[in-house]
Design a protein that fits this description.
By secondary structure, the chain is mainly alpha-helical. It has one domain (about 1-120): Rossmann fold (3-Layer(aba) Sandwich), CATH 3.40.50. The chain has seven helices and two strands, in the order αβααααβαα. The chain has helices spanning about 1-15, 25-30, 30-40, 45-50, 55-65, 75-80, 95-120, and strands at about 20, 70. It has a two-stranded parallel ribbon. The longest helix is centred in the last third of the chain and has 26 residues, at about 95-120. The chain is globular and about 60 Å long.
Length: about 120
């Protein structure tokens, strides 16, 4: 978080918007992979394992630091139910994953720019 806070401050001094994109790992969105991984864990760890814990902790820290973010997890989780988003046995996205990430990010940037434009419009 130290470096993200530093980047935020540098961007602020230069009047640059700064947001972080949260990228889920395949094990967080692929239920069959989760089942495989869980089966390798001792019973006690299987009960405690929370795939969203890293995202939950990170987003809480970002909110506390007042750093904006785009969280890809919810849409990736939903999309992964009907199509593969990652290359097999690889942490990188396939074409569908890249396309989905681009769509989510573009939508968020468009919405952000619209909000900025609305603030600059003169009051009638």
């Amino acid at each position: 978080m130290f470096y993200l806070k530093e980047i935020k401050q540098i961007c602020r001094t230069r009047n640059i918007d700064f947001q972080v994109v949260i990228i889920p790992d395949e094990v967080q969105v692929n239920s069959s992979l989760q089942t495989q991984v869980r089966s390798m864990l001792p019973d006690e760890l299987q009960k405690k394992w929370n795939v969203t814990f890293p995202i939950d902790q990170f987003t809480a820290a970002l909110r506390e630091a007042k750093i904006g973010y785009i969280d890809l997890f919810p849409q990736f989780l939903e999309a992964a139910k009907v199509r593969t988003l990652y290359k097999p046995r690889d942490s990188h996205w396939n074409m569908a994953g890249n396309r989905l990430a681009a769509e989510i990010i573009a939508h968020n940037i468009r919405r952000h720019l619209e909000q900025i434009a609305m603030k600059k419009l003169p009051a009638s």
